[in-house]
Amino acid sequence: MNNEELVAAAREAAEYSYSPYSNFRVGAVVVSEDGEVVSGANIENAAFPATSCAEATAIAAAASKGVRKMTTVAVACIDATDVDGAYPCGRCRQIMSEFGVETVLVTAGPGSEVREHGFEELLPYGFDL
Length: 129
Ligand SMILES: [Zn+2]
Description:
- The protein is of the alpha+beta class.
- It has a single domain, classed as Cytidine Deaminase, domain 2 (3-Layer(aba) Sandwich), CATH 3.40.140.
- The protein is 28% helix and 23% strand.
- It contains four helices and five strands, in the order H-E-E-H-E-H-E-E-H.
- A hairpin with a 6-residue loop joins strand 4 and strand 5.
- It is globular, with a radius of gyration of 13 Å.
- Zinc ion binds next to helix 2 and helix 3.
């Protein structure tokens, strides 16, 4: 899948978001080193810290299927048109670092341009044992 197709898949995943508190629907897809694509959406909770970001949901789904190396993560939100990209939060960047993500694609809103970032750009000096 090319970048636009991955972001389209992330937008499709956002349709399954459970976000009654923020109304900010986000979807993500991760690509394994074998080319498998796994999606996820943000899942909110009344106890806000129990909320899971779309990237975390997708990565957990992939890892639960045995994926241990993920090359790309695409993230997209489908409601907000006035935000500057659906960038992963700090927690999600750390989760990505565990699985060797190399490339992160971000976009925001329908029709927004796809931006591509090398992972080192998003989490320089991340924690690693
Ligand atoms: Zn996050």
